[in-house]
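Study this protein:
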Amino acid sequence: QGPTWTRVASTVNKGSDTLFLKDAVQWKAGNSILITSTDFSRVLDYSTYTDPLYGPSIGHPFPDQNERRTIKSISSDGKTVVLDSPLAFTHWGKDYQFAEVAMLDRNIVI
């Protein structure tokens, strides 16, 4: 059946509708997936964080950056996924930080 989750192989920028995955999956067009946040606002004290890199977000919590999408198409090798709509946030995929991608549609047989 293949993995039910994997990680992105590279950073996916805000506005992109394509994910490149680390592992081949056997998901199908029409499946719902979740792309996890790579934002650290939940572990940083945003009220005292002063790094100018975050500009207007200083002193404000970041929004939830987990995103649910539907697969529009998937490559034959199972590593490239085209989404039904562009992503609202950037999801990192480099160094030590790789967004996780999970299939949400599964049947459980007992």
